[in-house]
What does this fold into?
Amino acid sequence: MYSVRKVTDDLYWVGANDHRLHLFENIHPIPRGVSYNAYLLLDEKTALFDTVDWSVCRQLLENMEYLLGDRPLDYLVINHMEPDHGASIEEILLRWPEVKVISTEKAFLFMRQFGFHIDGHELIEVKEGDTFSFGKHNVAFVAAPMVHWPEAMVTFDTTSGALFSADAFGSFGALDGKLFADEVNFDRDWIDDARRYLTNIVGKYGPHIQLLLKKAGGILDQIKYICPLHGPVWRKDLGYFIDKYDKWSRYEPEEKGVLIAYASMYGNTEAAAQALAARLCEKGVTNVWVYDVSNTHVSYLVSESFRLSHIVLASVTYNLGIYPVMHDYLMHLKGLNLQHRTFAIIENGSWAPKSGDLMQKFVDEELKNMTVLNERLSLASALHPDKAAELESLADAIVESMA
Ligand SMILES: Cc1cc2nc3c(=O)[nH]c(=O)nc-3n(C[C@H](O)[C@H](O)[C@H](O)COP(=O)(O)O)c2cc1C
It folds into this structure.
């Protein structure tokens, strides 16, 4: 059975939702599922913008057959050919052998690399600034390299103001009937998954997102809809989400607040993390979030690190090193290029505490544009009352640095 939503009079969402996949890219948990969005334009010519993951191809086909009726599919526009969107390309070509495929040179190369049989079909290679007409609707193609793959482009419908934004402006989370961001409480129910999606998946390519935002900036007043490949479509309050993207891609925190990430085996470092959280709240800083790195998936830690201005690393020493799970979290921050945060350190060890120096070295040498506060809390096995003054000065230093 078809399941489509109308975006405009002649543009339809023909994608599908997936609640079965546990790990997006086989790494990021998606407890709220995910949507694969594709859009069908019924103009004088018909055009499908992107396809869907293979797991939901059947739904895409039913949606298209319903809307097309006796009409042929004239064009397939591929903005992004990563398999969660491109996997159904070949099926579309098999069912509509006359369809002409519009995409970038690199995307065609990737299609061949992935083994799609595209040759023998009419391929229309486009690049930055090229335009095309489907009848009433004229579109312009805009290169979006590394948002999130090098072949990516976005397509702007200059007639309707719809921006087919590929992976940009996407989010984890299945739509479950609600297509538009204004049909949900986005700021309450979606923003965390949108941030987790963007920061973990494209976080490394902030400058490339900035480039795309600059291009979009020139036509901001003409953009009426943002149609991403995952998550809700935007037709109201576009500035809210564009502003979030701007912050994330400039590595600026959204909020003044403290993330306390602790690594603890027997609970003593955890107790110190809790004591610090309590002291901070006592001093009026209540935007404090405490996470155990061992039972929090790193994608959430990354997302929270992008949200908040301050990060406290509290780790036991483990075989003269940083606790491995904490080290993994730090490696993710490095890989995703996070910058402009203030760090504080709590270390623990029973015979040769090293984690403090090592975490400091990591932040200083492996991350960019970070500040580490001088005050450090160093524990020999457990936090005792004789450390109250050190704890206090660490809390004070954090509060002062937030002013
Ligand atoms: C496998 C293992 C390796 C450890 N390596 C060190 C070490 O190199 N140096 C050290 O001072 N303590 C080491 N410790 C001890 C813990 O870091 C220490 O007991 C710490 O206080 C535990 O804090 P927690 O209660 O938060 O787990 C090690 C403990 C384990 C289990």
In short: The chain has two domains: 5-249, 259-402. The first strand starts at residue 5 and ends at 8. The chain has a mean pLDDT of 97. The domain at 259-402 is CATH 3.40.50.360 (Rossmann fold).
